[in-house]
Amino acid sequence: MGDVAHQSSPPAARPLLGYGLTILAATLFAINGSVSKLAIDVDGMTTLRWTQIRSSGAFLGLVVALAILRPDLLRVRRAELRNLAIYGIVGIALVQWLYLVAITRLPIGIGLILEFTAPVLIALWARFVWHEPVRHRAWYALALVIVGLVLVAQIWRGGTLDAWGVAAGFGAAAALALYYLMGERLVAKRDALSIVCVSLGFTTLFWAIVQPWWSFPFSALSEPVALPRLDASVPVAVFALWTIVLGAIVPFVLSISALRHLPATTVGIVATFEPVAAAAIAWLWLGEALVAAQILGGLIVLVGIVLAETAR
Asked: Which residues lie below 8 Å from residue 212, measured CB to CB, with a gap of 6+?
C-alpha cells in the first residue's frame, strides 16, 4: 500500500489549455502559409525545395532536442521502420509539398479548405474499408462538403479555380487522411513526439534522394523578399528560419501537447480554425480576397468537416 501511495499519477487534463494550444498551433500553421507563399516566389526556391527546408530543419531541431532530453524516444525497432518510412514520405512529405503546390495556385484559404476535407475521406475509409460503424452524420458531412466546394469553385461560372491547384489540394487531403489513419495506429505503440521526429527523418532522407543537397540553390537564401503592407524586405533565410521553428517545430509540439488535455476528435475540430485564420491572414497581408459565394462555401465545408470528425 505504501508503494502505491507514492506512485506518481499522470498530470490532470486541463481542457482550456488544450484549446489554447490547438488554436495557437493552428494560427502558426496559418501564418506559415503566407510566409511560404512569399518565399516560393523567389527565383530558384521551388515548392519542392521549400518543403525540403521545412522538413529537414524541423527534423534536425527535434532530433537534437530529443537526443538531449529524451534519447529513449529515438530507439526504433526494425519492425517499425516500414510504417514510419511510409508515414514520413506520404503522411508528411507529400502533405507538405501538395499543400504548397495548392496555395501557390489558389488562394491560401481555399487550398487549406481542400486539404481539410481529409476527415470526410477518413470516415468513408472507416466505413467501406475497415467496416467500422459510422454515424449517419457522415453522409450529411459529405453532402455539405460537396455543396460547399461547388460554391468555392463557382461551378456555375465554369469553375474559377486552377485545375492543378485543386488536384494538389485534394491530393493533400488524401495524404493527410493517411497521416491521421496511420498516426492513429502508430500512437498506440509509440510516443507521439518520437513518431513525428523519426518520420521526419525519413522525410529528410526522401527529399535528399529526390533532390540532393549539393544541388540546393543556397544563393536564393540571401535574396530579399518584400513584405506586403510594410515598406521593408528580409532575406529568404529569415523566412526559412520561421518556417522551420514557428511553422513546423513549435506548432507540431503544441498540437501534440494538446492531446494530453483534449480527445483527438476535439483537437481535430478546433484545428479547423486554421483555414479560417489562414484566409484572414492572406486577405490582410497578401490581399487575397474571396467573393461572398466562396466564403459561404468555405463555411459550409467547415461545418461538414466538423460533422465528419465526429462521425466515427
From this structure: none
Cβ neighbours of 48 (radius 10 Å): 16
Cα Rg of the chain (Å, integer): 20
| Contact status, residue 148 vs residue 297, Cβ threshold 8 Å | yes
CB atoms inside a 10 Å sphere around CB 1: 5
Shortest CA distance to 112 belongs to which of 127, 125, 95, 129? 95
Residue 289 has phi, psi (to 5 degrees) of -105, 140
What distance in Å separates the CA atoms of residue 249 and residue 221, rounded to the nearest whole number?
Answer: 20
Furthest-apart CA pair in the chain: how many Å? 74
Give me the amino acid identity at 249: I
Q: CB–CB of 183/129 below 8 Å?
A: no
- Put residue 159 in one of left, alpha, beta given phi > 0 → left and psi -120 to 50 → alpha: left
Nearest C-alpha neighbor of 18 from the set 249, 274, 257:
257
**Residues 6 or more apart whose Cβ sits within 8 Å of residue 185:** 83
Q: What is the pLDDT along the chain (312 residues), one digit of tens a residue?
A: 444 444 445 567 788 999 999 999 999 999 999 999 999 988 889 999 999 999 999 999 999 999 999 999 999 999 999 999 999 999 999 999 999 999 999 999 999 999 999 999 998 898 888 888 889 899 999 999 999 999 998 876 666 789 999 999 999 999 999 998 888 888 888 888 899 999 999 999 999 999 999 999 999 999 999 999 888 899 999 999 999 999 999 998 898 888 888 887 888 888 999 999 999 999 999 999 888 999 999 999 999 999 998 887
